[in-house]
Design a protein that fits this description.
The complex is a heterodimer of chains A (279) and B (463). Chain A is α+β, with helices and mostly antiparallel strands and 279 residues long. Chain A is built from 8 helices and 11 strands. Classes of the chains: A alpha+beta (279), B mainly alpha (463).
């Protein structure tokens, strides 16, 4: 475990090196399908459309990320409430959810879980109509005008971070931003929704609602390019050294999703998932 | 090429008048029970449509789905109903390719069962979707995401549907010609004229000469070969939608085989039920005997035994690994909250059918029919056991094994009246559509039976 932690700490600040990408296997399989010839004529455009958006040559100025300092979290769930208030969500739509975890000593500790905004998200390639996409700034968003509601992305996400609109969404008054994947308010019945890191607010210089409203200063939001993040208390950190000094790590690292949410462990917990925990 | 797959060189075709009059009677005259049956079954289907409209207005939550159970009954119905359509491919294609003469009176019923169950299964895509108004995105190329297993499900099932329609149609051509000949002899009326037009379209330019028959049989043989890999691909790709995820209970390399074998197993069982019903309703006792049932029964339990073995393998390995995710899931199935449906499958769909076929006094027409009812029912339940536990399993949990599902609680799928009505409607739609099909199409493949009879008498053997 300590090995994993130190490895993570060193890798956290930079882009994690990728050895095997499941997604590239799937992509290769899709291209192989095109090779069958039936779709040969049209396949090229489809494959391009299926490709998740990647960094352009000019380069986006920001690479959004989140750092969650578990040492400070008292499990008050103000983040959940702030998120649901801002996005007009039902009570069971916990885009920012605080899990109660148990460590090896049997002690319970709270763990806030937003969308991990994975660099290699499991939810994006499985959508049959390409309603999930990743922005150049590293946000994974849902285009609810495309979503047909198969829920296969809910199956794919290893973090249970996706929530469906099983009925009529919570009504919302006029919003400061137009309804879009960056600000999916109100939600749309029969489509999937999830944490968006309050994408529409970011260009205005604000940080996500959960970070703003956390009284304990647990949630830092920032940019990997400038290597800085800030919490609701106005405390600023240098991300790379903060993660390196405090054993920063990601949740369920072994799933190969390369999350952009980093945790600072406290409470003596162990963040490996169930698959490694048998021993 | 055709010589390899076609039946042997055609011998002189002998018309069996007794067979023709027995089989064509329900096509030419409306049976007394036909309209009442259609109305009752149609009413059940209409109730299902009303339930679906209610769901459209109130959302998938009204069908018992929630964030703790994102998949449930519609997904297992999709698998189960497409699964039972496999009987057509097996009984008709495999038995044809292996030159099993006894298949002749069963092929039409098997193919018709496939023809009606496959679209019914496909229809479950619609209530499954949260936003079915946008289903055209699956058909319209700019939206296609080729790395999605669901899109390939759609491709595979659509291709298989086309093949199933053609596989039903080709052997029908000479029979349609037989019906047309009978109609031409009848006094002309509007009804007769409408029907004559229908059968003329079906017959096309087929004249029934030996060359044409040989070519037709060659095409059917070729399609019989093609339809088997297509059938395998459908349930394999269907299983990918579940298996290509990191979720314990879905991430199983055994899934494609497991799904295909389950489909073949329940498919043969449904063919037995169709054959039993058609035999009684259309008084075909002299053409379909207990010999047919027992042979179908043996075919069925061969798949049943394979399925039992795969089930055992899957649960043993996941349970034995003792990793928190898969082991918790296996525990919930065999001894936890899903033990009732699982052991129901194990007894009613695993052991009892094998016992029925193993014990000679039970190996009768009734025995095989009872076994088939159990198989169809328990395999539907088994699909629920495949789909629901992993979808309701908490996958974010604490690191230590002893703490098990500490953070997430197991979600629950609620069986509300909406999906139950839709499922009952889909079940009623099978006999409904079969009755409609057999109102226009002879229930037995007349020409094929005559050909097989001619062949076997030519070779001096029993059919």
């Amino acid at each position: 475990m300590s090995e994993t932690t130190s490895e993570m700490a060193s890798a956290a600040g930079t882009t994690t090196p990728v050895t095997i990408q499941r997604r590239s296997v799937l992509r290769a399989a899709a291209l192989g399908g095109i090779g069958l010839g039936v779709l040969g004529a049209v396949g090229g455009t489809v494959a391009l459309a299926a490709e998740p958006s990647s960094t352009t040559s000019s380069g986006p100025t920001k690479q959004w990320c989140m750092v969650i300092d578990l040492r400070m979290c008292n499990g008050c769930q103000l983040c959940t409430v702030a998120c649901q208030t801002a996005h007009f969500l039902h009570e069971d739509q916990t885009w920012m959810k605080v899990y109660t975890m148990t460590n090896a000593a049997g002690e319970e500790y709270p763990m806030p879980r937003p969308c991990m905004q994975c660099e290699d998200p499991a939810c994006v390639p499985v959508c049959p109509v390409g309603a999930n996409f990743r922005t150049p700034e590293g946000l994974v968003l849902v285009d609810q005008s495309k979503c047909i509601g198969t829920r296969i992305c809910m199956n794919a996400c290893p973090y249970e971070a996706r929530y469906f609109n099983w009925g009529a969404p919570e009504p919302a008054p006029k919003q400061p931003f137009a309804q879009s994947p960056e600000w999916p308010v109100p939600q749309v019945q029969g489509t999937v929704g999830k944490c968006i890191d309050c994408a529409a607010m970011l260009p205005t210089g604000q940080i996500p609602e959960c970070a703003t409203h956390c009284a304990m200063g647990v949630i830092y939001f920032g940019d990997l390019t400038s290597d800085t993040a800030v919490n609701g208390q106005g405390q600023t950190i240098k991300i790379s050294s903060f993660l390196a000094d405090n054993n920063g790590m990601v949740f369920k690292e072994e799933y190969g999703t390369h999350p952009r949410v980093y945790y600072i462990p406290g409470h003596g917990q162990d963040l490996v998932s169930d698959h490694d925990a048998a021993s | 090429m055709t010589d390899v797959i076609a039946t042997p060189a055609p011998v002189e075709h002998r018309v069996d008048h007794e067979l023709r009059s027995a089989v064509l009677r329900p096509v030419l005259e409306t049976p007394r029970w036909w309209w009442p049956s259609i109305l009752v079954l149609g009413a059940v289907v209409v109730l299902g449509i009303i339930a679906w409209i209610f769901q459209l207005a109130h959302g998938l939550g009204s069908a018992g789905y929630n964030n703790g159970a994102f998949w449930g009954i519609y997904e297992s119905n999709l698998v189960a109903f497409i699964g039972v359509s496999y009987g057509g491919a097996v009984v008709s294609a495999i038995l044809r390719l292996t030159h099993q003469g006894w298949r002749a009176p069963l092929t039409r019923i098997a193919e018709a069962t496939a023809l009606v169950t496959l679209p019914i299964g496909m229809i479950f895509i619609i209530p499954h979707l949260g936003n079915p108004g946008k289903i055209w995105e699956l058909i319209w190329l700019p939206y296609w995401n080729l790395s999605s297993p669901i899109l390939w499900d759609f491709f595979a099932v659509s291709t298989y549907l086309m093949a199933t329609i053609v596989f039903f149609y080709l052997p029908l051509v000479p029979d349609a010609q037989v019906v047309l000949t009978q109609l031409d002899a009848e006094a002309p009326s509007t009804r007769v004229r409408v029907r004559q037009t229908l059968y003329r379209v079906l017959v096309g330019r087929f004249g029934g000469t030996p060359t044409e028959r040989r070519r037709l049989n060659g095409s059917i043989g070729l399609l019989a070969i093609m339809i088997i890999p297509m059938a395998v691909s459908v349930h394999s790709v269907l299983s990918f939608a579940f298996a290509s995820s990191s979720r314990p209970g879905y991430m199983e390399t055994i899934f494609p085989v497991y799904f295909v074998v389950a489909a073949l197993y329940s498919g043969v069982a449904l063919v037995v039920l169709s054959v039993a019903a058609v035999r009684k309703l259309y008084h075909l006792e002299s053409y379909i005997s207990s010999r047919h049932f027992v042979r179908l029964g043996f075919l069925m339990i061969a798949f049943g035994a394979a399925y039992l073995y795969l089930t055992f393998t899957e649960y043993l390995i996941d349970g034995y690994s003792n990793t928190a995710g898969p082991a918790a899931w296996v525990y919930q199935i065999i001894a936890g909250r899903y033990w009732v449906p699982f052991w129901f499958y194990f007894v009613a769909g695993g052991l009892v059918p094998i016992l029925i076929m193993a014990i000679k006094p039970l190996r009768t027409m009734t025995g095989v029919t009872v076994a088939s009812v159990l198989v169809v029912l328990s395999l539907w339940v088994k699909r629920l056991v495949i789909v629901i536990p992993p979808a309701t399993e908490p996958i974010v949990r604490a690191a230590t094994k002893g703490s098990g599902a500490v953070s997430g609680l197991w979600g629950t799928f609620h069986f509300t009246w909406v999906p139950i009505s839709i499922t009952v409607a889909a079940t009623a739609a099978i006999p409904l559509l079969l009755l409609i099909v057999f109102r226009f199409v002879p229930a037995l493949s007349v020409t094929e039976m005559e050909e097989v009879a001619a062949e076997s008498s030519h070779q001096g053997g029993r059919p």
